[in-house]
Write a structure and sequence with these properties.
148 residues, alpha+beta, elongated
Length: 148
Amino acid sequence: MDSVDRAIIDQLQANASLTNTELADRVGLTPSPCLRRVRRLEEGGVILGYHARISPEALGRQFQVYVEFELADQRQSTIEQFEVALVAYDEVIEARRMFGAPDIEALVAVADLPSFERFSTEHLSALPGLGRMQSRFAMKVIKERHPV
């Protein structure tokens, strides 16, 4: 990967809807070589996809809560059942299995605090294999979705 590839990546991270002509102009290439480089980056697994950034408020998902889960035990079957049940909920927009404590971290997006309380009580607390759950939400977003 050279400086032109990095420039292509920077431009696409800032605005994935650029046309190939616009992208080529911004990185100092003609359209054909630019498109070949983009295709090579896609095929090589560097560019994983293109996404639209959607307003959480427009979807009624502006209240985001970080939830930490500790499992009741570390058996593979417990972990698998928990993971399958957790990610089945649309409200869970990210989930990661961690080394150390907590076992799982998730980001949940709902409309507001009462919605989270209801979701937590009715669904999260009933997840199979759950030992302990803790949640917290941000006071203020300082930086979000920075480029890799």
